Amino acid sequence: MSPASPxxxxxxxxxxxDRVPVRGPAAATTATLTFAEEVAALLRDRPRRLxxxxxxDALGSSLFDAICHLPWYPITRAETALLQTHRLAILEAAGRxxxxxxxxxxxxxxxxxxxxxxxxxxxxxxxxxxxxxxxxLDAASARLRRLPGVAVHTHVxxxxxxxxxxxxxxxxxxxxxxxxxxxxxxNFDPPEAAALLQDIRGxxxxxxxxxxxxxxxxxxxxxxxxxxxxxxxxxxFNCNLLVRLNRELGADFDLEHFAHxxxxxSRAQRMExxxxxxxxxxxxxxxxxxxxxxxxxxxxxTESSYKYESATFGETLWEAGFSxxxxxxxxxxxxxxxLAAAR
Length: 343
Fold this sequence. Notes:
One of its GO terms (molecular function) is L-histidine N(alpha)-methyltransferase activity. By secondary structure, the chain is of the alpha/beta class. 35% of the residues lie in helices and 25% in strands. It has 2 domains: 5-18 and 74-218 and 307-342, Vaccinia Virus protein VP39 (Rossmann fold); 35-69 and 220-305, no CATH class. The longest helix is centred in the first third of the chain and has 20 residues, at 75-94.
């Protein structure tokens, strides 16, 4: 991997500067649904779908942690290197002693990199971790609590809900640094991503900072290897969703009759994960009151990972109410780390 190179994004066009971003809570129509209700609604849809957040049960979270260490999935290593190199500049811009909120912390490794440099004189941090996976929060909080001067609080919630919980206890004059790393933004389609960024901005005050990672468009063969690795770890991660439905909703999915499929959608600039039915079959999901008939080749769409262009990502942030302070790109991995201020 070549050294990460600093980069400034193209400033927003005058038309974008004059456009007032719409702010307010992001639409979250599924937030009030039970897991069974959400599964029922999405599996009845065409194409059939399942909620991507459901991939992250205890086993799914562990499998994703393993994916992050695969040689074909360079995002985590690239982002960690960028954080290590630019951590002091990031913390200086955030106010040195901000309240830190990480949305989707994974195992906590990246945030730990940001908050320590081995000098022994790091400032105290009040850290809040937000994720739908209690398992991921346990792993991240255990890692971060080993750091001196770090107080860790966990919130088992969707991102926008957990962030608003944190801001309710905010003290006067306290700055906020929201970390949204690992290209988690890519798991939302463009309208959802825009709404989520607006919702994040709505919970922040002017001058607070957002640290966000974005995976970039790159050669298809590189993307394909990242989402369909030779060891089959990503396939297990995807198929585990059916294991979860069998366990929690009493379904009778036969894993031998479904296969992992990763595909690049060039028009939408996204990688898609699907579970493909290998035969004509009937599946019962009593917990969701479903009886499903699949034909051979029919898929269940489980996740999308949208890829961004470095030259336009700043405009995406601008439209949500942020202005770019600085950005850094790992050219080999095709990954962008951006620090932006709420305006």
